[in-house]
Each structure stands twice: as structure tokens, then as C-alpha cells.
Amino acid sequence: MRPWERLGLAGLVVAVLVSAGVAMFARGNGDAPARAESAPLSGATRDDVQSVLDRWAGAVRSGDTNALAALVDRSAAPGFLDAEQSRARNAAGVPFEAFGYALTDAGGTPVPDDLVAALGADEVIAPGVELRYSFAGADPVPATAPVSVVLARRGDVWTLVTDAPVAGRDVQTWRGPWDFGPVVAARAEDGESLVLGHPGDRATVEQIARGVDDAIARVTDLWGSGWSRRAVVVVAASQAEFTSLVGSEHDGANIAAVAVAGAVDRESRSASGQRIVFSPASRQRLDAGGRLVVLRHELMHAAARVDTVDGSPLWMLEGYAEYAAHRGDDTQARQIAPDLASRVADGMVPDRFPRDDDFSGSGSAAYEASWSLCAFVADTWGDARLTDLYRALAGGPRSDDDVEAVVERELDTDVETFLGQWRDWLARELG
Ligand SMILES: [Zn+2]
């Protein structure tokens, strides 16, 4: 949607964290770690540690702040327990189906000797752990997110020391909406789709929730029913939250919303962690109607995710999503593509397909041209052929020649005729 939206294919990777713990663990990192990557935990230790992780997740989920106090080590970095207890309180309104910390098969990270000495514990470990969570009804499969955690053993009791990054390992604990304040949740009418946000955005959260059913119906009408037909939407309240949810390559000041996914499994045709995230800047840049247009655009990306490979021609991905966003509205073409309309009025007509480069910078001309291409194809050949064209072009990167060949084949035309007809359509619709 416009220059302030991008198709986001990022996983859930970035965390923003500043705490005493960071300094503590970063200390002395001018030297390479003294020990090699440690082996996976042995059976008995693994069971004990998993048991602590289970109690940790259970306490967060149930809002049991006393249980958290009992799990956190007496020498833990200041603020760790507070943050855990805040998360537990903040997440009280979130309808989790699953929320668990799981040991992964990856070996842990050696813990710096000075930390081990400072804690005075019998054993200190930083095992490979991930968060697996899902929202009841809304997530077809659980999402996973990285967790960096240090545990200490005193006698036979294991405790949590920190979830801050550990020197020598490039893992930061992922932060969810519940790490950024109390969460309000609203269900869509389908009883499955979910919109999350914070109390200050409650009206926006509820407005989006009321629009989700219609957005799903519209996207399904164009794309077909071969997708989950449910949505998880998050209204981010701060830049830090937005960055945590969508990745640092998306500048929230210039983007209204991003659709992200975790892992895509093409065999089972499922994608985990599909989220539509509205940026804090969208508060100023979108009115209620504009918010629903953006919702439909992002939902189209989500619906097509398992059939869309990274690097496919952006004009196809963005043009199709934008076409889906406006389809069925009586919005004039001139309102959907005002910059393109003024170019056409000045006699500047496109003579080629938009290239991915054209989307950098402000990119509005590229978005509008891409929308117009898709609207022109739908007008001339129908929605089904447009969708076939999307599927034919969404399989990965294509050269310009390749794109032209696919268009010629799918629409049974030649590219010169096609471009000429597109220019005629622009003159007619925008002139
Ligand atoms: Zn998009």
C-alpha cells in the first residue's frame, strides 16, 4: 500500500533490549569465547531444565507473578524479575492456545567465566531455547521465536538468571506485544481472527476487528478459498514494538503496515506466525476507511504467502494486493492512483513493467503503476486470469524478458500490444 507499506517477508528476529543484563554479559567480549560451543544437555539435566522452562511459561501464561519470583535467581540482573512479572500481567488478556519454552537440539552457548564466578552457582548454562506460541483459533500452526536464556543451578535447583543476549551468541529474545505494555484483544466476527493492541489504541483495535470478516471475504472472493481464511493483526504502539514485530529493515515512520510470516511449509501449505502489523505512524496517516484498505492489502499478501516466493516481481505482488484492497469499492481510479494520474495528464505514460528498483525511495509511482496494471488485466481478461498471472509470476525472481514471456503466455498476447492497451486504459481511466 503506497510508499509507506512494504511486503514483509521477515521472520520474527529482532529484539530491542537495553538492561543491566546486557552490559553484564557483554563484559570482556574483546576476547573470543574461551570454550567451544557446548554440547546439547544430557538427559537428566535436560529434563530438569525443561521443567523450569515449563513452569516459567506457565507462570507467564497464568499471570502468576509469585511463581515467577520463585523461578528467578537471587543474583539475577536487576529488572529481570520486574520485566517477567510485567509481561505476565500484560498478557492476561491474550487468548493463547499454546505458550511454551522448548529446548532446541542446538547446543547451548558457553557462559562467560566472569558471570559464572559472579553468580557463585554450581553450574550456569545458556541452552538453545525457543518460544512456541499460538493464539486460540487464529493460528493454524504455532509460531516460534528465539529466546536467549541463562539458567543457574544451586544444588539441584535450577533458576532463571536472564533472557538478555549472551556474549558470543547472536540470539536475542524476541519481544511480543505483551513486552510493550498491557494488551487488549478483540475477536473478529468469525470468532477466530484476532486483533491485538494496547489500551490507547482500543478503538482502532475494535474498528479493525469489525473489518476483518469483510476483508477475508473479499480476499477469498478474488484469490479462492485455499488459505487459512483467518488473520492476526497487531496495532503496534511504539517504534520499538513495530521493529520487534516486523524486523529492523522496515522503517515504521514511512510504513503503514507490514505483513510478516515465520516459516512457510509449502508441502502442508501452511505458514506460521502470519501477522499484519500496523505501525505507530499509521495513527496519523490513516483514517478508518484507509485502515481497512490497508488491512485488505496486507491480508492479500498473507493469503497468498504459501504460493509466493521471495524475490518475485514486486509489481505483481504489490499490484495484486493493491487491486484486492480496492476491488469492489467505488473508489475512482484517480483517487487510487493520484500520482500516476497527474503523470498521465502530463503525457508521461509507462513503456515497461515496473522494476523492483522502482519501489525504493518513495515508490508511490511504482505502487500506483502496479495497481493499474492489475486493474487493467482484470478489466480486460477478468479476475481469474489475473490470479493465474499472479500464480505464474510468484514463483521467485524473474528477468525482465521472463516477465514478458509469462505475460504473453498467460494472457495470450504479445508484449507490445499489451503495453499499448495498458496505456490506452490509463488514458481512459485516469486521463
Ligand atoms: Zn504490499
Could you walk me through the main structural features you see in this protein, from its secondary elements to its overall organization?
The chain has 431 residues and is of the alpha+beta class. It has 3 domains: 22-170, Roll (Nuclear Transport Factor 2, Chain: A); 175-307, Zincin-like (2-Layer Sandwich); 309-431, Neutral Protease, domain 2, CATH 1.10.390. It contains 16 helices and 14 strands. The strands form 4 sheets. The chain has a 6-stranded mixed beta sheet, with helices on both faces. A 3-stranded antiparallel beta sheet has the order 2-4-5. α2 (43-62) runs antiparallel to α3. It is elongated. The model is unreliable at 1-37 (pLDDT under 50). The protein binds zinc ion.
Largest sheet: 6 strands, mixed
SS class: alpha+beta
Number of strands: 14
The CATH architecture term of the largest domain is Roll
Mean pLDDT: 89
Bin the helical content: 40-55%
Extract low-pLDDT stretches. Answer: 1-37
Attribute tags:
three-stranded antiparallel sheet, 3 domains, binds zinc ion, Neutral Protease, domain 2, 431 residues, alpha+beta, Zincin-like, disordered N terminus
